[in-house]
Write a structure and sequence with these properties.
The protein has about 250 residues and is an all-alpha fold. The protein has 10 helices and 2 strands, in the order ααααααααββαα. It folds into 2 domains: about 1-105, no CATH class; about 135-249, no CATH class. It has helices spanning about 5-10, 15-35, 40-50, 60-85, 90-105, 110-135, 140-155, 165-185, 195-215, 220-240; strands spanning about 190, 195. The longest helix has 23 residues, at about 15-35.
């Protein structure tokens, strides 16, 4: 007997092809709406595509929203990239990236794919946050950075039978908020990447790698020292060679 999930997301036959077509249609419609300067309508379309989250009893809404938060974060972030791109070619690049997310990365359920989903969510979410609202009040930036990081961390820990998932996710979200609070007073950009995004991505990738290797019993003392050394070295280089006189906030 087929499961409910397989009926909603068919894996073979005409239904699978039609489902893939519908998935491809979403980035295309978002691209068209952005080209027509209907960005708010494109955002509404991305949110409406998740209608199944609320097609259950209200007591399941919170868990469904939490389970789909990474997908929503990536979709809205790529929309922001499209809206802030100066050319149609770049907008098309982001449309293709969104299609790749929906068809290749998002459906994965392996440890590697879920880890990649969490990493992509945090990187593009933080990038979009500071691109779109870099001049917003610092408190708003802190709260949104916490939310993006918490969502991504919780998704990452869903890979593992971790009893402290909520605690670790909150701790990472708090750390991201604290970094944003400190660096937000001198918000620097390297191209389109803000300094908080770069540092949080480096530290997050390093800590995630350490946790993964530890869970797989592949973390030797030497490997641990190498990870920590590389993370610390990158952070020191970024902080030491930043132009702190170039304040954007």
């Amino acid at each position: 007997m087929k499961s409910v999930a397989s009926k909603i997301k068919p894996t073979s036959g005409f239904s699978h092809i039609f489902h893939q077509f519908l998935m491809l249609l979403l980035p295309l419609l978002v691209f068209i709406l952005v080209r027509m300067h209907f960005v708010q309508m494109a955002a509404a379309l991305i949110l409406l595509s998740k209608w199944r989250m609320l097609a259950v009893r209200p007591r399941y809404w919170l868990s469904n929203i939490r389970a789909n938060a990474v997908d929503i974060t990536v979709g809205l972030s790529l929309l922001i990239f499209m809206a802030h791109s100066s050319s149609g070619s770049w907008q098309m690049v982001w449309m293709i990236a969104y299609a790749a997310w929906l068809l290749v990365i998002k459906p994965g359920s392996s440890v590697a794919k879920i880890s990649l989903q969490a990493l992509v969510s945090q990187v593009v979410g933080l990038m979009a946050l500071f691109i779109a609202w870099g001049d917003a009040p610092l408190l708003i930036l802190v709260v949104l950075a916490w939310a993006v990081s918490y969502i991504s961390a919780r998704h990452f820990f869903s890979n593992f039978d971790e009893p402290y998932t909520a605690l670790f996710s909150q701790a990472w979200g708090y750390f991201a908020g604290a970094v944003t609070w400190i660096l937000g007073h001198w918000l620097l950009f390297y191209g389109s990447v803000s300094q908080p995004t770069l540092l949080l991505s480096v530290v997050g990738f390093g800590l995630g790698g350490l946790y993964y290797l530890d869970q797989k019993d592949r973390l030797s003392p030497l490997l641990r020292r190498q990870f920590v050394f590389i993370m610390v070295a990158i952070v020191i280089v970024v902080l030491a060679f930043s132009d702190w006189g170039d304040k954007t906030i």
